[in-house]
Structures are given as structure tokens and as C-alpha cells.
């Protein structure tokens, strides 16, 4: 990773820790940020996610009748 990328990422995580998003722990702030980026890149909406977390898989939308 380029030095600029590292500085930018550190700054984003520092801001989230200061705002306690989702908590004031650096590791949790990084995990939350990473999950947000992964889900936004995949364009996964809440309707893709299983209601029962024990299922351990994402539900794909059905196509057509």
C-alpha cells in the first residue's frame, strides 16, 4: 500500500475513533469501515443478508417468476 493511502486510511480511522463510530476502539472502527467498503463495493443491500445469522450465507435475489 502506498504511503499516501496509509496516511489517508489512518486519518479516516482516527476520525471514526474520535466520533466513537461504532466505538472508541481502533480495531472495531477499522472492521466497521472495512465492512462498509466491502458491502458498498458489492452493492449489497439489507435484503441480501439473512435474517438468521446462523445461516452463514447471503441470500441472492430471485430472478423472474
Structure notes:
This protein is an all-alpha fold and 65 residues long. The chain has one domain. The protein is built from two helices and no strands. It has helices at residues 3-18, 26-42. α1 packs across α2 (26-42). The protein is flat, with a radius of gyration of 16 Å. It starts with a helix and ends in a 23-residue tail after the last helix.
Low-confidence stretches: none
Record field, number of beta strands: 0
* Helix-strand makeup class: mainly alpha
Query: How many structural domains in the coordinates?
Result: 1
Q: DSSP helix count? A: 2
- Please tell me what the overall shape is: flat
Sequence of secondary-structure elements: HH
| Backbone CA Rg | 16 Å
Topology of this protein?
Elements lengths: L2 H16 L7 H17 L23
Please tag this protein with its features:
65 residues, mainly alpha
In short:
The protein is mostly helical.
